[in-house]
Design goal:
28% of the residues lie in helices and 22% in strands. It is an alpha+beta fold. The chain has one domain (7-182): tt1808, chain A, CATH 3.90.1570.10. A hairpin with a 3-residue loop joins strand 7 (134-139) and strand 8. The longest helix is centred in the first third of the chain and has 15 residues, at 20-34. It is globular.
């Protein structure tokens, strides 16, 4: 739950403020990735970053980052075991972090987060930009590849993941909206 009494939390929430395109893009990517049995996918998972000073990356957060999507090759906890108490912050960094640009964010903010994620041991970062219908796949050292609808699939060589980019940015039709409304 978001503590709206904390000015920093309120500022971060307002700044992120996801839109329909952001939410749809996040959902579609998470759904496509969850079909891969090698991967464990989480949305909005709090990562414990207390072991590093985030201010060196120009990030205001003190001890946690919450990516849109986290992907693990090995789950951070044994999911088969029943968890008595929920885990509020995960200390094991994901192998892949995905951020979806929202209308109130800047690309440079997210790239600063990527620098922090790589410093924390994340292997790959994706930046999905719904308004451009593109995904940039970053690896350490600021190397990246851009995939758009012209590409048949998006390829992350570090993670050995291939996604049909057309399914990520498939247009909403009146029929698909009605199906959602009638569900």
């Amino acid at each position: 739950m978001l503590d709206m009494n904390n000015d920093e939390s309120q500022e971060n929430w307002v700044k992120k403020m996801p839109s329909i395109k952001h939410s749809l893009t996040q959902t579609r990517i998470a759904t496509l990735l969850s079909n891969d049995e090698r991967l464990t996918t989480f949305v909005e998972l709090s990562l414990d970053t207390s072991q590093i000073d985030l201010s060196q990356f120009g990030i205001k957060a003190k001890d946690e980052l919450v990516p849109d999507i986290c992907v693990y090759l090995e789950p951070p906890i044994e999911l088969e075991d029943e968890i008595d108490d929920d885990v509020l912050k995960v200390s094991q960094m994901p192998d892949l972090v995905i951020e979806v640009l929202s209308p109130k964010q800047t690309i440079s903010e997210l790239l600063n987060k990527f620098k922090a994620y790589f410093a924390l041991g994340v292997k790959s970062c994706w930046l999905a930009v719904p308004s451009m219908e593109a995904i940039k796949v970053y690896s350490p050292g600021n190397q990246y590849r851009t995939f758009s609808l012209d590409s048949h699939e998006m390829i992350d060589e570090v993670m050995d993941i291939r996604l049909p980019i057309q399914k990520v940015f498939q247009k909403l039709t009146k029929r698909s909206i009605n199906v959602v409304q009638n569900a």
